[in-house]
Amino acid sequence: MSISVDEFTSIRGRRYFGLNIHDSFNNATYNTGLVRILDSCPAEDMLIIIKNHLNDFGISLDKDIVGSTQDGAAINKKFIRISNIIGQFCFNHAIHLAVCDSLYTNKQNNDEYTVEDSNDIDDEDTFEMATDFEIIETSIDNIDHHHLLKNIKKDFKSIYGKEIELHLDVKHRWNSIPTMISPLIKTKAALFETFAELNSLPIINELDFEALEILEKAMDPIRVTVLALSRQDATLLTADKALNFMISKLEQLK
């Protein structure tokens, strides 16, 4: 058997470990519920909590569990080291971190921290995209807080045949990026008319729509890969194929 462990924080700020047991012999997954985390929880305490929780189900971490899957947080890495079981870190979480780290790096951080490698061009593109996101935020804020908002929504409906909402991204959720940029690309013509009425064309003119269209295309193989990795029957072979698919598709966009 193996386990998967994830940390969960409730809307009240209470922290829990969610623990599932995966039985390969019966091809079954069992949700054991949430375990409350009190105060700080170093890896040593995490190990005790997980062991005690498994013991409640008559399962020994040392004798019955061969491996564990979780995200790549430092506490989880140490938990794997001290638990003497095989560790598999979550690929979906790694993709999430890779996308967010790539697209939300800012120039201020670059001034304080420099990595000498062969990715200077990619880094420059990253900073430009972070700037584009700032421009998008400014643009949407200008629309949301302007008296023409209702008229803009009517224009969207008359031009495109349906209501189109503009959304801001959530900086710790990679999948909010396509939700933000797709409506902008669809309503490009109407947006330029809107900002002309607002006498704010310089704001929208700074936005690199060509880069946003490439980014939108890049989000599709990432989304497909995440869905494949999220399947309950996904294996390491599935992950290998899915990640290779994603990388090959992204390389084609260079």
Question: Which structural traits does this protein have?
Answer:
single chain; 254 residues; alpha/beta; Nucleotidyltransferase, domain 5; 5-stranded mixed beta sheet; 5 strands; 58% helix; 14% strand
How far do the termini sit from each other? 42 Å
Question: Which sheet architecture does the biggest sheet show?
Answer: 5 strands, mixed
Radius of gyration: 23 Å
Main sheet strand line-up: 3-2-1-4-5
Give a description of the structure.
InterPro entries: RNaseH-like_sf (IPR012337). It is a single chain. The protein is of the alpha/beta class. The protein folds into two domains: 2-89, ATPase, nucleotide binding domain (Nucleotidyltransferase, domain 5), CATH 3.30.420; 99-252, no CATH class. The chain is 58% helix and 14% strand. It has twelve helices and five strands. It has helices at residues 43-55, 61-64, 74-83, 91-103, 107-112, 120-144, 149-160, 176-186, 188-197, 201-205, 209-230, 236-252, and strands at residues 2-9, 15-23, 28-37, 67-70, 86-89. A five-stranded mixed β-sheet has the order 3-2-1-4-5. β1 (2-9) and β2 (15-23) form a beta hairpin. The radius of gyration is 23 Å and the shape is elongated.
